[in-house]
Design goal:
The chain folds into 2 domains: 5-136 and 245-317, Rossmann fold (3-Layer(aba) Sandwich); 139-242, no CATH class. It is an alpha/beta fold. 39% of the residues lie in helices and 16% in strands. It has helices at 44-52, 79-92, 106-116, 139-150, 157-161, 166-172, 174-181, 188-192, 198-204, 217-228, 231-242, 247-250, 298-301, 303-317, and strands at residues 5-10, 13-20, 29-33, 56-61, 98-103, 121-127, 261-266, 287-292. The chain starts with a strand and ends with a helix. The longest helix has 15 residues, at 303-317. Belongs to the AB hydrolase superfamily. Epoxide hydrolase family. This is AB hydrolase-1 domain-containing protein. Keywords: Hydrolase. Residues 28-303 form the AB hydrolase-1 domain.
């Protein structure tokens, strides 16, 4: 679908990416950062639309994905290093400033990119996951707090992702995993993904359900590839967050985001629940929030609504 390129951002570390140069100088370039278990393919509708409108589009396969560098050591997944990788790629492509779009785990990298290098950004768009300022992450505490607030743990699945056998279970049960990650009934995330122990039970009992209607055969093939190739590398994004790998790097960072931010929430996302991020506005002086009738894969579920909202917002800030 997209012609991919590869670039060595620093010695021994390469990134696979798709780049479409802008053909209208008044339009900015958009930098797309995906989450788990996605790839740059999750932005296909946005790349297709915005490149046709004259915008530049740069979408990467992040570390652990596709043909990008995929180390097995979770200590290599430092966000500060990855931010430098992005800068190196932007320099290579002669891109001075971009609008950064992040989804899911890609939000962590997107927000830190803007904190470390506000001068390279025009704005920031967050999908489903809102801004979490630098702070120590305590998984146990997060699970207790969310269970108290919502009646179930929102990130109980992190405990499974952090376990030694998770990658093997994913690789051997790809269809079972795709069913629960892309279900037609998003409320299943309240019972079979979020709660502690739920996804292990789902996977090992090989439970099945109907998949989301927007998922085409091609989408399924790509999702299957992502879930059967080098899964441990992908899970390292979670492992590194659990061990607070970024704590030292971020301890002196100013938590205020000095660029305009658009947060697009999914009101049927029962893991990245919009209420969890209600306080982000205290660190974002220029924040606009839009809620869409979607579950977690907002830009794939409602691409036209997303593209319209994003374009309208870009026209306001640029």
């Amino acid at each position: 679908m997209f012609e991919t390129q590869n670039y060595e951002v620093t010695k021994g570390i390469n990134y696979e990416y798709v780049y479409m140069k802008r053909n209208d100088d008044s339009k900015p370039t958009l930098l797309f950062l995906h989450g788990f278990p996605s790839s740059f393919y999750c932005w296909r509708h946005q790349i297709d639309y915005f490149s046709k409108q004259g915008y530049g589009c740069l979408a990467l396969n992040l570390m652990g994905y596709g043909k990008t560098y995929s180390p097995l050591d979770e200590k290599e997944y430092r966000i500060k290093s990855m931010v430098q990788h992005l800068i190196s790629l932007l320099d290579h492509l002669n891109l001075t400033k971009v609008i950064v779009l992040g989804h899911d785990m890609g939000v962590r990298l997107a927000t830190r990119f803007v904190l470390y290098h506000p001068e390279r950004t025009l704005g920031l768009i967050l999908f489903n996951v809102g801004y979490r300022p630098p702070a120590k992450f305590d998984l146990e505490q997060a699970m207790q707090l969310t269970k108290k607030a919502f009646g179930y743990e929102l990130n109980g699945y992190w405990e499974f992702f952090n376990s030694d056998d998770a990658a093997e279970i994913f690789e051997n049960n790809a269809d079972v995993a795709i069913d629960i990650l892309y279900p037609s009934d998003p409320t299943l995330w309240k019972t079979d993904l979020g709660p502690l122990g739920a996804i292990r039970k789902w996977m090992t009992k090989k439970k099945r359900t109907n998949r989301a209607s927007y998922m085409t055969d091609k989408d399924y093939e790509i999702a299957r590839q992502v879930i059967t190739e080098r899964v441990q590398s992908k899970l390292n994004w979670y492992k590194s967050a659990i061990i607070n790998i970024d704590l030292d790097d971020e301890k002196d960072l100013d938590p205020t985001i000095k660029r305009p931010v658009l947060y697009i929430a999914g009101i049927k996302d029962y893991i990245c629940v919009p209420q969890v991020f209600a306080n982000q506005k205290q660190h974002i002086p220029n924040l606009e929030t839009i809620e869409l009738d979607t579950s977690h894969w907002t830009m794939e579920e409602k691409p036209e609504d997303v593209n319209q909202a994003v374009e309208k917002w870009i026209e306001k800030i640029v």
